[in-house]
Write a structure and sequence with these properties.
By secondary structure, the chain is of the alpha/beta class. The protein has helices at about 1-15, 20-25, 30-35, 40-65, 70-85, 90-100, 105-120, 125-135, 140-145, 150-155, 250-260, 285-305, 340-350, 360-365, 405-415, 435-445, 520-530, 540, 550-560, 565-575, 585-595; strands at about 195-200, 270, 310, 365-370, 375-380, 420-425, 450-455, 465-470, 475-480, 495-500, 510-520, 535-540. The chain has 21 helices and 12 strands. Bound molecules: zinc ion.
């Protein structure tokens, strides 16, 4: 009976007909509503129909924003459709309450059907993408939709319209200071001529094993240049052999070629801040994700045998993308990510002792000693993001997997033992939930004296994050490096970086001395059919930096403010020298605001 009502509801939603009221009037569900005292007027029924239509669009919008399935132009189209539906917060709450009642019998399937139908009929995406995307995210979507209270669901769906309920995403804090912060000592530069370490860094590989040159690179799907796309109609449409600026990821031979080139050099260790799979996020199984992790590990062990890799998990490592349920939800459908953590830890075992991987198997994070005096900490900060919808319910966002509590403990022990630390995580923290990013920030402030650097990925660009002192906002306490990402997705060149650290010797400062970025100009590589990795810039030459301490970056920031031409060079490097356009003063001010933003929410 209820399913019968849903068929009409779908028809109403999809075709915008006005028959919904009469359907509802005769439906047992509505009679149930009457019994519990709900208003049964025509106006109310129409409101519910309208609200359900809008919810269908908003649910779809949430799904298609996962992992950026939507093109910019489509985002706008969907947003316009949502705005055109114009449903108030009260109407939304009523509609969600109705859908919650249906949850017991038929509601779960109906929500998915609505989203697919809206997606297809509104011509938001290709039907195949619509179906697969909605199915891919169904477990997580249904968990969050049916576990949020109606006011919470409506705030989630339309945050600008519906106020945040008081206990939704509660604020929280952990004790970041078991011991008082010791007085800061002046940082010491290594003695000139001391041994150095070379460290290879890359991130956001986004390797597409279905990459196919010559097919339509402008295919209308969220990811193109794939063997599922039709052949290009003309030369300008054709996917390039070595990569493509449009919505395409990296050909495996471009990834492998880069590693083969670099295999002639010695690196002390390799850092990787996550995201191996391609962006076909509407269709990725856990086996696909495990396969990509294994392929990447094979490449590293083949070209850099004996060189340890320290990696963080990206939001794209999970299936579906961004899905990082906290450990206490392991028994929910789709709530168990141990398949990912175990697969990653089994690969990391190549370089990291098993006893250091206990936390990796539990929550995707770990710490291990790189060498005497230098420790790496890999955080799984996918637990920081409201893109992992599981965290939106109850208090699941409160320090998921107790990771930050653990982080403070590790930092304290490192401080006690006189170690310096390198911190890896995937997401720049301004994209995190407020409390997570504040607790992280407070930990960085407390232990700034032992931090060599923070490394992030995710953005695909080459940028900084500056963590200013919370007691003295003009003093830079710690620097985060975002990227450079390897993938060209989208309208970027490909790049990797080599860091120079003080070397492995008794009395080493363990500090970072310089960084050099190498890039592949994709257009040139395709034209000449010859991928040539070129020197892009080094911090010492390009920015005149004596070392890579926070005070050096504080000075660089001052010079960015006074010298627009110096800033232009930074601006070009953001896209790995793809966008060589001029960044005027308001563009610069925006970028500087971005560099200084480290707290989310
Ligand atoms: Zn990412």
């Amino acid at each position: 009976m209820i399913n019968f009502a849903w068929i009409f509801l779908l028809i109403t939603i999809c075709h915008g007909s006005n028959d919904f009221s009469s359907v509802l009037r005769n439906d047992p569900m509505v009679r149930h509503f009457e019994k519990v005292g709900a208003d049964r007027s025509d106006a109310k029924e129409n409101i519910i129909a309208d609200a359900a239509r809008k919810i269908g669009h908003q649910v779809l919008s949430k799904i298609l924003h996962q992992g950026d399935i939507l093109h910019e132009s489509k985002k706008q189209l969907l947003q316009e459709k949502i705005e055109g539906l114009d449903v108030t917060c009260d109407e939304c709450i009523t509609a969600v309450s109705l859908l919650h009642v249906l949850n017991n019998d038929g509601g779960r399937g109906a929500i998915s059907k609505i989203a697919v139908q809206v997606c297809v009929l509104a011509k938001i995406e290709d039907k195949g993408v619509c179906n697969l995307a909605v199915n891919e995210f169904a477990d997580e979507l249904l968990f969050v939709f049916f576990h949020l209270k109606p006011e919470e669901a409506c705030h989630w769906l339309q945050p600008d319209l519906c106020p945040k309920p008081a206990d939704y995403l509660p604020d929280w804090s952990i004790n970041t200071s078991p011991k008082p912060k010791p007085p800061l000592k002046p940082r010491q530069r290594p003695t000139p001529g001391s041994p150095t370490s070379k460290v290879l860094f890359f991130t956001d590989m986004h390797m597409d094993i279905q990459y196919k040159p010559g097919v339509n690179a402008d295919c209308g799907e969220p990811l193109c240049c794939r063997d599922t796309n039709p052949p290009a109609a003309n030369a300008s449409q054709a996917a390039g052999k070595w990569g493509d600026y449009r919505n395409c990821d990296m050909p495996p031979w471009t990834v492998e070629g880069m590693m083969k080139n670099l295999s002639n050099y010695h690196f002390d260790f390799i850092l990787f801040t996550g995201d191996i799979p391609a962006h076909d996020v509407w269709n990725q199984t856990s086996n696909d994700q495990i396969d990509r992790n294994n392929r990447f590990t094979k490449l590293i062990t083949k070209y850099f045998p004996g060189t340890p890799l320290y990696a963080a998990l990206g939001n794209h490592a999970s299936s579906p993308v961004n899905s990082y349920p906290p450990p206490q939800l392991a028994n929910e459908p789709g709530g168990d990510v141990s398949w990912l953590y175990n697969a990653a830890a089994n690969n990391w075992r190549n370089w990291i002792p098993e006893q250091d991987l206990v936390t990796a198997r539990k929550g995707g994070f770990y710490t291990t000693l790189v060498r005497k005096g230098l420790r790496v900490i890999s955080l799984n900060n996918n637990y920081c993001s409201d893109d992992s919808w599981w965290l939106l319910v109850a208090n699941y966002s409160v320090d998921p997997a107790d990771q930050l509590k653990w982080f403070v403990g590790v930092m304290q022990k490192a401080e006690d033992e006189g170690e310096k630390v390198i911190i890896l995580s995937h997401r720049p923290t301004d994209g995190c939930l407020k409390s997570w990013s504040e607790n992280y920030y407070n930990t960085i402030m407390r232990y700034e004296g032992i931090i060599v650097a923070q490394f992030f990925g995710h953005a695909h660009t080459d940028e900084f994050k500056f963590f200013y002192d919370n007691q003295n906002s003009s003093r830079l306490a710690s620097v985060g490096f975002i990227g450079p990402g390897f993938t060209t997705y989208s309208y970027l060149n490909a790049a990797y970086r080599i860091y120079t650290f003080d070397g492995d010797y008794e009395g080493s400062t363990q500090s970072m001395i310089d960084a050099t970025t190498y890039y592949l100009d994709i257009e040139e590589a395709n034209k000449s059919d010859q991928p040539v990795w070129r020197h892009e810039y080094s911090f010492s030459q390009e920015y005149g930096m004596k070392s890579m301490f926070p005070e050096d970056f504080e000075d660089l920031m001052r010079r960015f403010g006074s010298d627009i031409n110096l800033f232009q060079r930074y601006h070009h490097h953001v896209t790995k020298d793809k966008d060589m356009g001029y960044c005027d003063e308001s563009c610069r001010d925006n970028a500087i605001r971005g560099i200084k933003k480290t707290i989310g929410g």
